[in-house]
Write a structure and sequence with these properties.
With about 400 residues, the protein is an alpha/beta fold. The chain is built from nine helices and 14 strands. The chain has a seven-stranded mixed beta sheet, sandwiched between helices. The chain has a three-stranded antiparallel beta sheet with strand order 12-13-14, with helices on one face. A two-stranded antiparallel sheet has the order 5-6. β2, α3 and β3 form a beta-alpha-beta unit. α1 packs parallel to α5. It starts with about 45 loop residues before the first helix and ends with a helix.
């Protein structure tokens, strides 16, 4: 009988490493939400003030330019990005970049739901980026700043010209608060509260450049726009104008004020620890804890092939040892799921299996709300679980 490895002596203090919804901030408690504006209309003056405060703190931490609009919209990052697509695309050709599941989702929406006439798709396999130097910026560009399901991010914004003709749409839900944003290169940026800041689900943030606002007010798509997607209203001269109230806290539909209070709590924590530089540093430290272990461990590798494109929030890993790679794809997936289940049974890590559409492996969240020390301890447990799974595999042979 194969001898099982000895369990590590130390356990992570906080064991939540899910890539969405993500870990709450250090020190979080329900008591922190005791002042939530509940049982009242969100349109009351105090409710709108809370919503406006969430917008203002977001602007402050992210350094959003004064002439950009920032608002709270329905349905998480998905709703925010869909809203932008339905409201603005169609005036010119669209190029959709896809190297992981969510980018491929925007391709599906552009081609099969919006049924746009001119959609170019530029794809890359999991682990790689497409050739960003070959993009035609006379077109509108859709991309994910950080591929949550592949662990591949754009290394910078140098590939986007300042004098572009089309608009750039950045799905930044795993990048905001963790990676630098070069605002002059972005026209539409979206994210959700439950990623790097560990907030609650169902609310999205939509940030628009002056160029995006100009598109909204000039171009009227030849399609019905659902109410929760409408950002404009008809003015006295029958001209379409952006509804600026949305970007001052008058949300399109009813938000959860409990979720708003939770977002405010984590934004205030972000300010207290040093703002955006401190949040990015925490994400970098967490990713380094995992990547240092990967570099020293022969049986595992980063799914992102180029170190310059490796995410500092959603670190995706693949198993490369012959004992595993010689298995069928289905058996590799079973091996990884069993490894993850073993960690959950030991109550040391939750929800670190690879995304359902991604290659078999692990996906570990290292964003700002996760402590690097916990991630270092986690690697000892992953080593243990891997060896235990190999022992089970040998016993079954």
């Amino acid at each position: 009988m194969t001898e099982l490895p000895q369990r590590p002596a130390q356990r992570p203090a906080r064991t939540h490493f899910s890539s969405g919804p993500c870990s709450k901030r250090p020190g979080w408690s329900l008591e922190n939400l005791s002042n939530a504006f509940l049982g009242r209309s969100h349109r009351a003056s105090d409710g709108k003030a809370r919503l406006k405060q969430a917008i203002d703190l977001t602007r402050d931490i992210l350094g959003i330019p004064d002439d950009y609009l920032c608002g709270i919209v329905p349905a998480s990052d998905t709703g925010a990005f869909e809203l932008a697509m339905w409201s603005m695309l169609g005036e010119r050709g669209v190029t959709a970049l896809a190297w992981e599941s969510f980018g491929k989702g925007w391709v599906t929406d552009a081609q099969k739901q919006l049924k746009l006439n001119d959609v170019d798709v530029v794809e890359a396999a999991y682990g790689d980026l497409p050739d960003l130097s070959a993009i035609d910026f006379s077109r509108d560009i859709l991309f994910t700043a950080n591929g949550t399901t592949s662990g591949v991010r754009i290394p910078n914004y140098d590939w986007i010209p300042a004098d572009r003709e089309g608009l750039t749409f950045a799905d930044s839900t795993s990048a905001a608060f963790a990676q630098p944003i070069e605002w002059p290169k972005v026209d539409v940026l979206t994210f959700s509260w439950q990623k790097v800041m560990g907030g609650e689900a169902a609310h999205g943030m939509l940030i628009l450049s002056p160029r995006a606002v100009e598109r909204l007010e000039r171009y009227v798509p030849d399609r019905p726009i659902p109410k929760i997607f409408r950002l404009t209203k008809v003015g006295p001269t029958n001209a379409s104008k952006v509804d600026h109230a949305i970007f001052q806290g008058a949300t399109i539909n009813t938000p959860s004020m409990l979720c708003v209070e939770d977002y405010l709590d984590t934004l205030q924590w972000g300010q207290e620890i040093g703002g955006l530089p401190a949040l990015m540093a925490r994400a970098d430290a967490g990713a380094k804890a995992i990547n240092d272990w990967v570099d020293a461990t022969p049986w595992i590798a980063n799914l992102a092939n180029d170190p310059a494109t490796r995410s500092n929030t959603s670190v995706c890993l693949k198993l490369v040892a012959p004992e595993v790679t010689q298995l069928s794809a289905a058996d590799q997936a079973t091996f990884c799921k069993a490894l993850v289940k073993r960690l959950e049974t030991e109550a040391v890590a939750y929800d670190i299996d690879a995304y359902r559409d991604a290659p078999p492996g692990l996906r570990i969240w290292t964003g700002a709300t996760v402590d690097a020390d916990d991630l270092t301890i986690l690697t000892d447990w992953i080593d243990w679980a891997y060896q235990a799974q190999l022992a089970d595999l040998a016993s079954a042979a």
